[in-house]
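Running log. JK asked me to keep both predictions on one page so they can be read side by side. First protein, sequence followed by its tokens:
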Amino acid sequence: MNAEPSPPPAPGLPAGRSALLDDVCSRLDRRPAVAVITGEAGAGKSRFVHELLRRTTSPDTVTLAARCQEADTPFPLAPLVEVLNRFRSGPLPADLPPVTGALHALLPDLADRLPPAPPPLGDPLAEHRRALRALHAYTAALGEAVLVVEDLQWADASTCAFLRTVVADPPPRLGLVLTARSHTAPHTDAEGSDGLPFPLRAPAQVTVVERHLAPLSAAETGALAAGLLGAQAVPDEFAGRLHRWTGGLPYVVEEVLRGWPGSAEFPTGAAGEPPLPASVRRVVVERLRGLPPAARRVVAAAAVLCEPAPVELLCSVAGLGEPETRRALAAAVREGVLRRTGEAHAFPDDDGAHGFPRDGGYAFSYDLARRAAYEAVAEPERPVLHLRAARALARHASVFPLAGMAEHYRRAGRPVQAARCLEAAADRAAGHGDAGLAAAHYLDALRDGPTPVARDRIALKLARVALNARPGPQVPAALRQVLGRCSLGPGPSGEIRLLLGLLLRNQSGSGLEALEEIARAVPDLLVVSTGQAARALAITAIPSLKGWRVGEHRRLLAEAERLLPGVEEEDLRSAVLANRATALALMGDPAAWEAVADLPDTLAGEAAARVYANLAGAATSLGHPRRARAFQARAWQAVRANHAPYLEAFVETTDVVAAFTGGRWKGLLGRAEHAEAQYRDVPDFHAEALLVCGLLRLHTKGQTDVARRLLERAVRTTALDTGVVLTAAAAAVARIHLAAGRPPRAVEAVEEALRQVRRTGAWVWATPLVPPAIDALIRDGRPAEAHRLGAELAAGIADRDAPAARAALLTCRALLTATDSSQSGHAPSDALYVSAADALYVSAADAWTRLERPYEAAYVKEARGLRLLASGRPAGRTALHEAIAAYQDIDAVWDVLRCQRELREHGQTTARRPGALGYGDHLSPRERAVARLASLGLSNREIARELVLSHRTVEHHVARALRKLGVSSRTEIGSHLGP
């Protein structure tokens, strides 16, 4: 379908047309010359000609621009007569040839300036030929001139005859520019071709240039949109969708964006279909009115089908025979309403199998044209056409496009058939491993109002696939609605409730609610399946910091183990064993690795990806790096063999956390930020990505404010947390406060996480939390509480297989030695206590190194160096330099700066790296950070603590910032900093 553009109000070409314009301009200057510009209506022919004239004409050039109009009975030579009559105020040659007097009847407004009219010839044909010669002579007499005739597809026979005459014998100083509607590049050597309405046969001395304006590409459409919206660029996804809506026709792009709110927001995903511009609707309707009735029926069928369709399908939907359909298609294509495509479509909402032979189809040029044509179909006719379409697709497609058929049944008012097709489409997607598409189809099927029996069946299928699909909040709501009808037997009810609980646990952020839902499923499941009940119990046995006490999870696991001998189904037995291994590993139970060895060899696919990702996360947290790597490799192997978005997210975030824990920080921030953006619909995965983003912003960038905001979001986002987010986030915030000299705030930062650890008894997950918590308590003058916390950790991990927690306990004991010396009345420099503490620090650092935890090892080295410096031992300087080197190995910039400040505070100096670049009159990043805090009212001392700098360094930065910004006081800084 084509839109009719008006002449452009201002010059300007879409992206990609400049080179074409340069080429045509250079050829049009070689007079006499003929330029033929073709393209679909809306392709920008008028704008192109406007720019062409602007570039090639001078003030002395006579420019005549005519436009042919569509009319049932066109007036002969109408466009030429109109433009020449408008030219009456222009200069006319004084010596017009006598033959031009024959134009008196055609050009009455110029009669007083023409030679005398010749006597009549008495023969209409002879009169017509003389008028053509007169027009030709008149045009030649104009001298340096450009004649433009647009829309030649509507030219009358006389206008075509005149133009043939001019082309065959052009005046020597004439440039002739012709435009015509054409969907393909013109072939003007024969009349009736898809281009000019007459053959273009010019003498050899005439310069002829023919160019076709193809629609813009998606990238060019995006560039045009950016210019129209005043944006630097638009997202690729938006550009692609805009290209689909408009077919890359500049006029349609402009009409769509005319009322667009601007560049602040671009629609993504399935949202944001634009309103149908009235101008596009009007042009489509005008085109439809010009078609014969059969062609309008075929166009209506194409509009209902949406996708490119072959002739036989259009025959069935339109209710016409094949010969009549082909004639109708020829008329629709000739008028630019439909176009021939390369191949018939396969209906993309199914699994991609081609349902029709690849022998071509017919479709609209762009989506908005199809929408306009669809709206032109009378509403009572639409359900009839949709019903025909659904049945025709079933007859003609070798592979049923089930989702497309469902949409037609829905619009035909047949919800039961629509639900049946959607269920079949979902079954097919699930069979091909596409859980996301399957869940979407099952959910749509439930919305279509299936029969009660079908509804319960579909709900169970939806619950089974949704776990791996990241489906959003609509699925739990739909499952609750089905459960609320109380029409299910105990077996389906229990399984749906179990799967709903898992969905809530894994994806919606409803931690305790999810556990309670799973627990409610057990009685129903026991009625019908010991295996399903054992599976539910084993799932509830998996602990979390926001769940029940670890003892309760152990009890539930024992119940699952009691039922295990009675489980005969292999898949359910595997599921119970997998959850048992996961639960034991997360608890740090020494029997976990035997449970892993008991996993069946047949475990594969999604089940394998899930259990090995869980085990990898547990092994990382507990301090078993080699096991973690092996489990993670098996998880990746399983997830790559299955398209399960949820599991892909699970394995990726587990990998990101493991990379941070292992000090593999190079390039990790970008990966974590990508995960944060991708997995916002799964709370625990999103929280883990936020955590790593915050930790890296802190340690590698020194952005304490940004880090704290990210860490706070991670804590708010996490749903259950199997020992990753709450403790690590609290520990990092505590370290920020300790570095800034705020021990009371550091203690506050760890209180909530400690409360959760104490409530659940999950001390194996307190590895990152307890050392900085004890450090904060000691610095806050609360040594007794610090000792009690250390004792709690020792008791909590006494019988656990948790090497990382034991390394953390060694770190705590080393930190507590200083308290022991002061409480016993000994000086900090007492050799016995210094030696004892030093041995503990060395043991702790060695333990962390063996566990491949370079950050924790460096942290212990730093604490050892500070302890030695406080006792007056020269070895403290060496120890701190070792810590600095260790931090530098993992790019922990913030920690390096802290160590260097600590050395300065103890009277030591640090070497500066040579070759730093200057910033001239611009603020350096550090000066900008200092200036921003100063503008917020912080004192130099407070800034020094916040940024881990010396007081004197802050003074220098503030002074330089004032000078570079050209202000005299700190209160003026804010207005000069900019964003």
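And the second, directly underneath as requested:
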Amino acid sequence: MSTFISQIARVPRIFQSEQAKDARALMPDLGPELGALVAGAGSVSPYLLGLMHKEAAWCEAAFDDPARAVQAVIAGAGDVQPDQLSSHLRQGKRRVALMTGLADLAGVWSLEQVTGALTDFADAACQAALVAGLQAQIKRGKLPGMTAGDAASGAGMVVLAMGKMGAHELNYSSDIDLICLFDETRFDPDDFHDARTAFVRATRAMSGTLNDLTGEGYVFRTDLRLRPDPGVTPVCMAMEAAERYYESLGRTWERAAYIKARPAAGDIAAGDRFLTTLRPFVWRRHLDFAAIQDAHDMRLAIREHKGLGGPIDLAGHNMKLGRGGIREIEFFTQTRQLIAGGRDPDLRLRGTCEGLSVLAEKGWVTPDVAATLTDHYRAHRTVEHRVQMVRDAQTHNLPKSDEGFARLAAMMDVDLADLQKDLRQRLTEVHHLTEGFFAGSDARPSATPDHAFDTATLDRWLSYPALRSPRAADLFAELKPGLLARLAQADKPDEALRAFDGFLAGLPAGVQLFSLLKINPQLADLLIDIVSTSPALAEYLSRHAGVLDAVLGGDFFSDWPGQAVLAASLGQVLNAEADYEARLDATRRWAHDWHFRVGVHHLRGLTDATTAGAQYADLARAVLQGLWPVVGDEFARRHGAAPGRGAVLVGMGSLGAGRLTATSDLDMIVIYDPDGVEQSDGRRPLASRLYYARLTQAMITAMTAPMAQGRLYEVDMRLRPSGNQGPVATSLASFESYQMGAAWVWEHLALTRADVVAGPADLARDVEALRTRVLRRPRARADTLSEVAQMRARLAAAKGADGLWDAKNGPGRLQDIELLAQAGALLKGETARDIASGLTAASDATLITPEETSLLKAAYATCWSLQSATRLLSASVLRSDTLGQAGAAFLVRSLGCDTLNSLETHLAKTYDQAADTIDRALADYANDPERESR
């Protein structure tokens, strides 16, 4: 086991020999190593020498195990009667400061151990002083309903440690910044004013015990001014009042302050609840780049107010607030935490070094910058400690005199020249690294467009909702030249301008997006690309501008994680939310990010249509898997647990087949098994059939309701038994009876692509087993194909092709090929859900030849590529006269053609060949009324 002596890494050099002799004489029994430390410390620090005069005997004994000795002082902070507390705490502060200072000067304790010991004692002192203050009020009957035993747990009051105390980073001479609150729900409304008065008195008593300067000194200088509107509010506020203030009037600096907030004394649980309530205020759900400007403004205001805006001059330089100082690193760290901490809880750390480490791990800061700033932060804090250690002064300034610098160098056991060189290098590098980040807030684009844009379009921008606030207008004014320069580089600048104008007109607010673009100009290229190419994706972006946050998240362009990882990710998001509506909104926000990612990857050619279709389906399935139990739990709160074995969601059509487009509805049916249970057993029980019907409606509402974050998906339940005339949820027994005895052929065709996507595993297995039995039943070939032919004719009559760009409707297109593939699956009992397997089954059933099978598979791939691409460009069928140049280029690239004309020729030929093939396959079973019209 290592001893204190064995860990000594340095000893202060003798600065004043008489003081060194004085210190050594106070502890004559110490060995040479400890004696040298005591002598050196006494020679450089009149403050430590004064503490030695008062606590020499304790200190000499404490050297046997300094950490244990300090911990004993901390643990015993409140172990005296109230009338002895003031003296007792001052003695404790002397002892903690002395031993911590000696361990610090010797290099035995790390920065974290030093600040941790000081902070732990501050916590204990606050707790002891608060308990004494509360006991006095309770003893006088001033706290309604409270007894003497309640004082130890705060009696409903909590002391929040802010700033360095909150982060366990206290200095030797730090103020302690406290916010005192009480939980008003602990008291009857009629007792509120009496309780508040008592808590105010207890707070003042606590502050006096800690702060008052007596013959024995003080414990901690105490600052209560960080509370909301301190000029007019009491020193101890009701939590509800504080919440209302932050929700309505809270500013960015207060958000930053709460990064480090920590319940330190009193009712810790109440304090934790308050901080949880305040979480949406501190941690915004979007990437909050507007915080950068706010932080920059604060930096400039501090510099101007303190007169610290000049160049770095070591004499008298402020190590905290001056250029390259501690506050620069803290602002740099906290601002990035505010930007991204709402989306990533891992960034919500109080400590500066810990914050830098996780920011680097998450990709918000490069590892070398984080390591450099961490090293400089530790060095700055060490110098700051030495400056304060000289006379226990509340200062952060370097010495102004040569003598002062000589003393500082002796304290740090380094040569003066080396110290000054190191200080200058560190301050300069911190300023360079941090100023570059904030300087972007002052940047002005220099780009000038070389194209004459329509001035009428540009002039109306200021009337748009996104630019109505002065701050948004100012931000956009800075962005405008660069945006116009990018638009001018488009092949058709005026066309790109019209697209951007449409996006801007639909944007409801601008500050956050404009701040994001200002700090991340590379996103402007992506934005222009999107609005120029895809009006549909641009419209989506204007409704959900926060999805651009995801581009900066670090993994936006990483490999697709797959459905299982998506489901787990959504599960974490849902678990982090406390109430039902918050979970629905959080799901929307999460899904929008991923939906946007799939679209951007497809638009930029990083994925093809097949991959994008599978990814959209993965996302939809993950949403259904995540939300189904959430909706079920919420429904069960009112009506009891689901009777029987529960219910499953069965994906139909493209959802079941695992292939969706950007605008796909979700075709579903719900199958439940009451398992003989007639009704639920909740507060408002429902008969099983009604229970599952209403649960299904609740799920539909959860998916489709327009909330703050918009809708998730539109849901189509028409493929359930008996369609719109049947119940929205079907029991397993009824579903089996219907499918085995009453279902139409088209309903069996629909089953070829059905797949359970959410719900209990055992019930899912039973539904899949039933589906397999239905599909593998023997069936008459002629009857089946006759029904298919008639169904094809009805579809053609009801909805023909809407032009060349309609990949879905019409002969030889998606729906037509899918129908034949489903017929092949029915004839061969094929349970695979993809169209390619169905076409292979049709070939095995001799409905089509192997050559025709290959042709139809290729045609289907072409139609799907077109459908996927056009749905990314427009929610409705494209029109050639509205297809911009960028959109046309995307289509040509997506379909593997060279020009738009060659694509049009390819599509027409593909449709005709596929239609002729299907005509031949079904010729013996029906006449094709469309054949003559083509």
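Observation for JK regarding the second prediction: The radius of gyration is 36 Å.
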